[in-house]
């Protein structure tokens, strides 16, 4: 079975599949297919946010560090998901961490190259930013729910 091009992978990914073909072609030029095995850390909170991923297979645990408790998983996400949004705004530092929970196949993007595309085409930039803001809002809501789970009720002795 022949491998799919980056354009083909984007054309079937829920996050971007409905974008105009010329936008997909430009976006495809900034990405490449990757495979990472279980346990690989994609990003660590406060690290340099210089890439992001559109997940096709597998799952990723989104986490953040809590002093005295270590890395706390706030959400586990699977296929058709965007991983990483902190690359979009200065200072380009990860707000969360992420580790591969189950082997993944994804398209990995060069964040600086995508920021250049956004600067060159404001309409594309607005659309992509709107989609990323939806993901951001979902992740923050998941964080809120996870914190409530962890801390709202007294521990059972």
From TrEMBL:
Transmembrane segments: none annotated. Pfam families: cNMP_binding. Residues 15-135 form the Cyclic nucleotide-binding domain. CDD domains: CAP_ED (cd00038). This is Cyclic nucleotide-binding domain-containing protein. The lineage of its organism: Bacteria, Bacillati, Actinomycetota, Actinomycetes, Micromonosporales.
